[in-house]
Amino acid sequence: MELSSIKRVYLVGIGGIGMSGLARYFHHLGCVVCGYDKTATDLTGDLHNEGIRIIFEDRTDWIPYSFQQPDEGTLIIYTPAIPKDSAILNFFRDNNFGLFKRSQVLGIISQGMFTVAVAGTHGKTTTSTMVAHILKDSGKDCSAFLGGLSTNYHSNVLYGKNNIVVVEADEYDRSFLTLHPDVAIVTSMDADHLDIYGDHAHLTESFQLFASQIKPGGTLIHKKGLDLNAGFTYAVEAEADATASNIKIENGDFYFDFNNSNTSIPDIRMGIAGTHNIENAVAAIEACLILEVPAAAIKSALGSFKGVHRRFEYVIKNDRQIFIDDYAHHPEELKAAIRSVKKLYPGKKLTTIFQPHLFTRTRDFADGFAAALDLSDELIILDIYPARELPIEGVNAGMILERMQLQNKRLVSKQEVLNVIRDEKPELLLTVGAGDIDTLVQPLKQILQDV
């Protein structure tokens, strides 16, 4: 497929964070862009306001006339999250349109470009957004396809005027195997997506395949301790090829020193909080040094980096109340988020609201979730967000509660949680999860601001 020949693009599942980035990219190129999703969100509203037509019913008679016949100027992109019985998906399939997954299109776009690909079961969105911001802020420039909305740029896609592209490489459905990067970062390889991979060994094998696809002369950067054969390692307060040390918190800001064999950058102030984000920053710094960004420009850019929507994002921050929202949906992510909050605010009682994501993930990691959530002072847990899955008998949020040591815990509905917070008005609140818990953020913010 030649990108230059594409005139019309239809995205089945346009509302996803990765799919919406492609919609924006092709719209930016001047293509006619349309799509379908089952649910209207703030993101689909933004796309509509940018001139992209979206429907919310799975009806083939609502597909525009210009997409009725396949031709070389028409591109159909779909997400694996779309049900196989989708009428629109099957219309395109039955009428011999060429169907491409998002990951395949990213692979085509990045062909011939200097590609920085960031993979990992967690940390990849923040790290890839950091790399893109450093390149933009320093004047080096890049294009970028991100798995979240950058707070600095209010978008999940960035347009550059050079040959560098930063891509978030998603391991779900082995999507990242469509990429052949010049620089690859692997942030983590914890067991996840076992509904796809079956076990941790097969997940690890997939990451090893991804690492093997780096172009000749390219560089692999990975967290120390991962089961990867070679590469440039990084770590926080431990020995590695690139390290962060002398970590301290001053006035709510994190500072650290960066060192590798060639470069030292002292006293870097982070624009975002969390020890786990210092780890992400070390990987991002190393990638940008390979791209010959000056150390002083890297230091400045990290200070102005505002993070990613729903990645340790402050909703309220004042003397009376702190409210942080995070996308964490894996036990290791939860531990990182909760520990960072406790480190920042050691004198405050932490109330955590958690929405489990997927029945399979809850089943596979119930013990890990319990151990991570036990780090809170109070837990409010919501029902499982099913996403693409059907219920599994015996699998529910109670599985996590019954494994926890914490006494102050309860299961409530999404509506009830608003009443609980209205009554208790916690001084330190953390909402975590990858489902639709984000729809509670603004109502909770309003309740807390009415104190």
Summed over residues and divided by their number, the pLDDT gives a mean of 94
Poorly predicted ranges (pLDDT <50, ≥5 residues)?
Answer: none
Largest β-sheet summary: 10 strands, mixed
C-alpha Rg (nearest Å) = 22 Å
Q: Helix tally?
A: 14
Would you mind describing this structure in some detail?
The chain has 451 residues and is of the alpha/beta class. It has 3 domains: 3-101, Rossmann fold, CATH 3.40.50.720; 112-304, UDP-N-acetylmuramoyl-L-alanine:D-glutamate ligase (3-Layer(aba) Sandwich), CATH 3.40.1190.10; 313-449, Protein-Tyrosine Phosphatase, Chain A, CATH 3.90.190.20. Helix content is 33%, strand content 24%. The chain is built from 14 helices and 21 strands. The chain has helices spanning 17-28, 42-49, 87-94, 102-110, 124-138, 194-197, 200-212, 275-290, 295-304, 331-344, 359-373, 398-401, 414-424, 441-449, and strands at residues 8-12, 32-36, 53-55, 74-78, 99-101, 114-119, 143-150, 155-158, 164-169, 183-186, 219-223, 232-236, 242-250, 253-259, 264-269, 313-317, 322-326, 350-354, 378-381, 409-411, 428-432. The strands form 3 sheets. A 10-stranded mixed β-sheet has the order 8-7-9-6-10-11-12-13-14-15, sandwiched between helices. A hairpin with a 4-residue loop joins strand 7 (143-150) and strand 8 (155-158). Helix 10 (331-344) packs parallel to helix 11. The longest helix has 16 residues, at 275-290. It is globular. The termini are far apart. It comes from Mucilaginibacter xinganensis. This is UDP-N-acetylmuramate--L-alanine ligase. Its EC number is 6.3.2.8. Pathway: Cell wall biogenesis; peptidoglycan biosynthesis. Its main location: cytoplasm.
